[in-house]
Amino acid sequence: MSPVKPQPANRIILLGAPGAGKGTVAKALVDLFGLSHLSTGDMLRAAVAAGTPLGVQAKSFMDAGALVPDELMVGLIADRVQQPDCKSPSGVVRFLLDGFPRTLPQADALDAGQLGPDLVVYLAVDDAIIVDRLCGRRTCPGCGSPFHIHFAPPKVDGICDRCGTALVHRSDDQEAAIRKRLEAFHRQTGPLVGRYAACLVTIDGAQAPADVLAQVVRTLRARGAIVENAGQTANVVS
Ligand code: AP5
Is 218 a catalytic residue? Predict the structure, then answer.
């Protein structure tokens, strides 16, 4: 009798402290495999830029390095996962969540909607490294791509490699806000590591970006979470 094959992972969460590299990994996975990347940080920044009611409510929390209230975040994700890009041809909900859930009530909301993760990838990075990364981060307000003045500089200083938009230093990437975000992460998001222990894979996020990505790809591939696109995986990992 052949062994029972595990179900492929359709609902994946990228978990990690601010600056752990979630956005960097997620953007690469989208390019390579076309996963549906749902970044609550990107959604909130778009709402702030557009001046929507959500953006107006969220801005002061974000600038202070605090989490936006759960009820706003749960509503945002509940709407987003209904979009067609989060459904497979057979109607299965599929997503790569980046920045959600960040609290136990947010995790409860996913479970209540039968949207709990099949796989959680936890990028572990020490706080001291995080502060260096975020102080030097530059972000594209056009496509959301992250860069770093030392670790991942753009080809042309201050300009996004992908879409040519001028890069910005995020308002919450100042040292005081970074320290508050780290405190919020340890207090409010840290308990999710235990909550998801049964489906969680920890990856050392302090490695070089290419090595982190290669390890994430290996993990996703082992769980049947990625559909190979001929010719596009050669640079990642064999
Ligand atoms: P969000 O945008 O989600 O911010 P975050 O979690 O703080 O994460 P970051 O985007 O700062 O970091 P990242 O892990 O994506 O790292 P990145 O790849 O950019 O949220 C912003 C705010 O919105 C929150 O503070 C909160 O107020 C609110 N919010 C969002 N979701 C919420 C929720 N669910 N509930 C309540 N509030 C919510 O990398 C960082 C830097 O390091 C870059 O410069 C990059 O180039 C560099 N880098 C990446 N990987 C490496 C590496 N391996 N080696 C060296 N450098 C690297």
Answer: no
Please give the radius of gyration of the chain, using alpha carbons only, rounded to the nearest integer: 17
Using pLDDT thresholds of 50, 70 and 90, give the confidence band for residue 90: confident
The whole-number pLDDT of residue 228 equals 62
Residue 223 lies in a domain: yes
Domain encompassing residue 228? 11-125+189-235
Please state the rounded mean pLDDT for residues 76-80.
94
Measured by CA distance, the residue closest to atom 27 of ligand 1 is 62
Examine residue 4 and state whether it is found in any structural domain, yes or no: no
Write the Ramachandran bin of 20: left for phi over 0, alpha for psi from -120 to 50, otherwise beta. Answer: alpha
Using CA positions, which residue lies closest to atom 40 of ligand 1? 19
> Is 133 part of the annotated catalytic residue set?
no
Q: How far is the CA of 235 from the centre of ligand 1 (A)?
A: 25
- Regarding pTM above 0.85, the answer is yes
Question: Could you give the number of structural domains in the chain?
Answer: 1
Choosing from 45, 94, 137, 223, the catalytic residue is 137
